[in-house]
Amino acid sequence: MPSLQNAPSPVIEPNRAVAVGMAEGRGAGLAIADRLVGEPALKSYHLLGSVRGDLLHKLGRFKEARMTLEAAANLATNRRERELLRRRRGNRSTVRDFGEGTRSIRLRSRDDWMPVGRDRT
User: Between 46 and which of 5, 67, 72, 106 could a Cys-Cys bridge form, CB atoms 3.0 to 4.6 Å apart?
Assistant: First the structure.
């Protein structure tokens, strides 16, 4: 069986962006996802937009995240996926930076702030 390194697939790359974002920081994952935007095979792949939107949001780039998630929703051919992406676009939490990389989020259904630790960008 050929390894993925011998038979690369552009559809695998958004998954790599997620993994790198978790292991090396959101900025590193977003850099991979951003390079994929011009890939012809991924032009209509809504999950790339989903990955980018999530990473953008985690980096505090909320307006870009909402626009990216809406574009991904418009590409989705499945009604349930489209609805999920639109809910994710609209239900993003507010993030407050308390300095030195410590952040907290306010959940829409609650009035209190929940610490989320250090930001790994």
Answer: 72
What's the CATH superfamily of 1-90? Tetratricopeptide repeat domain (1.25.40.10)
**40-94 pLDDT per residue, tens:** 999 999 999 999 999 999 999 999 999 999 999 999 999 999 998 888 887 654 4
* Pair 116, 105: CB distance under 8 Å: yes
> What Å distances lie between residue 16 and 23, 25, 35, 90, 115, CA to CA?
10, 12, 12, 26, 27
pTM of the model: 0.69
Helix (H, G, I), strand (E, B) or coil at 118: strand
Q: Where are the domains of the chain?
A: 1-90, 93-121
3-class DSSP state of 17: helix
Listed in sequence order, the residues at least 6 apart from 114 whose beta carbon sits closer than 8 Å to its beta carbon are 104, 105, 106, 107
